[in-house]
Specification:
The complex is a heterodimer of chains A (113) and B (110).
Chain A: E1 4-7, E2 10-13, E3 19-25, E4 31-37, E5 43-50, E6 53-57, E7 64-70, E8 73-78, E9 87-94, E10 103-104, E11 108-112
Parallel strand pairs in A: 2-11
Antiparallel strand pairs in A: 1-3, 3-8, 4-5, 4-9, 5-6, 7-8, 9-10, 9-11
Chain B: E1 5-7, E2 10-14, E3 19-24, E4 31-37, E5 44-49, E6 55-58, E7 61-65, E8 71-76, E9 85-92, E10 98-100, E11 104-109
Parallel strand pairs in B: 2-11
Antiparallel strand pairs in B: 1-3, 3-8, 4-5, 4-9, 6-7, 7-8, 9-10, 9-11
Classes of the chains: A mainly beta (113), B mainly beta (110).
């Protein structure tokens, strides 16, 4: 299946832990993104990579570090997790700039306890 | 900060009714994209409008981009329970970012 796939689907962890979310796309897209969806369903861009190069870095705490080993993969590592990090994180990809649309993964629900 | 105001936030209607969702901004967008999101899933792209005044139809859904490329609307004719979901508008700005509206939770009751 052609898609954006992210793992894990659910992640429950304690405050202070470090965790990673992985994302892979087999659509041949050039650009990948991380979005955060809060409890009110609002989606906010966090990061964007084009061909392994960081092009958008929103005002996200530096505990969040994206890594793109190649243009098909974009992982998100989070250090020292806090309660406020609880949210659904979506990976997405697009062809070139994304002006014509993005393809989203099915999300990772992160719960920090 | 660039904002997309989406309204209404919640809409509960009976099967067969028509509805319109609005997406407004004071900023110009290169494109306006509409997504639908179901529980536990990611947003799925429905349509992208690029040209001011453009109208696109997808079965019972009609999407319009404002002449000035600052606003858009989604009209659903004869809504069905299968239309239930979260509808999101998103504007692609000239800085290369996709900015989302707050979303409209639509519930269509049989």
């Amino acid at each position: 299946d052609t898609a954006v796939s992210q793992t894990p689907k659910y992640l429950v962890t304690q405050m202070g832990n470090d965790k990673s979310i992985k994302c892979e796309q087999n659509l041949g897209h050039d650009t990948m993104y991380w979005y955060k969806q809060d409890s009110k369903k609002f989606l906010k861009i966090m990061f964007s990579y084009n061909n392994k190069e960081l092009i958008i870095n929103e005002t996200v705490p530096n505990r969040f570090s994206p890594k793109s080993p190649d243009k098909a993969h974009l992982n998100l590592h989070i250090n020292s997790l806090e309660l406020g990090d609880s949210a659904v994180y979506f990976c997405a990809s697009s062809h070139l700039s994304g002006v014509y649309g993005y393809t989203f993964g099915s999300g990772t629900r992160l719960t920090v306890v | 900060t660039q904002l997309l105001e989406q309204s209404p936030q919640f809409l509960s209607i009976q099967e067969g009714e028509n509805l319109t969702v609005y997406c407004n901004s004071s900023s110009v967008f290169s494109s306006l994209q509409w997504y639908r999101q179901e529980p536990g899933e990611g947003p799925v792209l429905l349509v992208t409008v690029v040209t001011g005044g453009e109208v696109k139809k997808l079965k019972r859904l009609t999407f319009q981009f404002g002449d000035a490329r600052k606003d858009s609307s989604l009209h659903i004719t004869a809504a069905q329970p299968g239309d239930t979901g979260l509808y999101l508008c998103a504007g692609y700005n000239q800085g290369g970012k996709l900015i989302f509206g707050q979303g409209t939770e639509l519930s269509v009751k049989p």
